[in-house]
Design brief:
Blueprint lengths: L7 H13 L3 H16 L2 H16 L6 H6 L4 H15 L4 H12 L3 H11 L6 H26 L3
Length: about 150
């Protein structure tokens, strides 16, 4: 039995879920968790802990907030990008990396929460793994391509 997420029947169920408000708890949960993660200082703590490893592999720690936020929420990652523009300037290589990450990756957990949640799919383990592998590939490729095109960051 094959499952088509975007079949006509499932699209109608998603539309009913949006209209009826069943998706709202998923959205509020994601946005609240991301806001708490940033406001609590946990994001800064994670960045400081990972800085030596990130430096070793050539991933700028300044871009890590976007890499962490992007799989969770689009609006949160726009906020991160806006903060980066204010901090580093529009022409900064870090902002370019974050912008390419934003454009080349997906909000994996948001998509799973909204689309799978609205059609009552509960077994999402493989979808999460595949989404995160694709997300990680997009993030790393974004950083290295920007480095190749605009110089080292």
């Amino acid at each position: 039995m094959s499952f088509k997420l975007l079949s006509d029947r499932n699209l109608e169920r998603i539309n009913r879920a949006v209209v009826s408000g069943r998706i709202i708890p998923y959205l509020v949960g994601i946005l609240f968790a991301m806001a708490m993660f940033r406001a609590s200082g946990a994001l800064d703590f994670v960045i400081s802990g990972l800085r030596p490893m990130l430096d070793f592999v050539g991933f700028p720690p300044e871009v890590l907030p976007m890499a962490i936020t992007r799989p969770l929420t689009s609006s949160g990652s726009i906020g991160i990008l806006q903060d980066m523009i204010k901090t580093y300037g529009l022409d900064s290589i870090y902002v370019k990396m974050a912008a390419v990450i934003f454009g080349s990756s997906e909000t994996t957990f948001y998509v799973i929460a909204v689309y799978f949640g609205s059609v009552n799919v509960t077994k999402v383990r493989h979808a999460i793994i595949a989404g995160l592998v694709a997300e990680g590939t997009a993030i790393l490729a974004s950083v290295y391509i920007v480095k190749m095109m605009w110089g080292q960051g």
